[in-house]
From TrEMBL:
Name this protein carries in UniProt: GNAT family N-acetyltransferase
Signal sequence segment: none
Organism: Brevibacillus thermoruber
Domain N-acetyltransferase: 5-98
Classification via Pfam families: Acetyltransf_7 (PF13508)
Lineage, broadest ranks: Bacteria, Bacillati, Bacillota, Bacilli, Bacillales
């Protein structure tokens, strides 16, 4: 597996570019688009493409609710989704938000 890094996507016009990968996990387009507008999006990528993404909505200053997590089929079962959720490569790791 190539080097994977996590990128926080902040700007709304950048978030919508990840819509298709998020639709792998939830085919309700309107809800996915709402989460994209309202949430924080984290993307696991290698040098060539996005491998997984996680959308979180802040629930309080200390917590965030995971609304969507998607991993490309060929990367499923390798722990990538768990790493995103657990925050091993998460910019907020150790800050109580994951």
């Amino acid at each position: 597996m190539n080097t994977i890094e996590l990128i926080e996507v902040v700007l709304p016009h950048e978030r919508m570019a990840y819509r298709d990968i998020l639709l792998l996990a939830d085919d309700w387009e309107e809800e996915v688009e709402r989460y994209i507008r309202e949430g924080e999006l984290y993307v696991a990528a290698d040098e060539q493409r996005v491998l997984g993404a996680c959308l979180m909505i802040p629930a309080s200053p200390e917590e965030a609710e995971i609304k969507n997590i998607a991993v490309l089929p060929e990367y499923r079962g390798k722990g990538l989704g768990k790493e995103i959720i657990r925050g091993k490569r998460h910019p907020r790791a150790g800050h109580g938000r994951v």
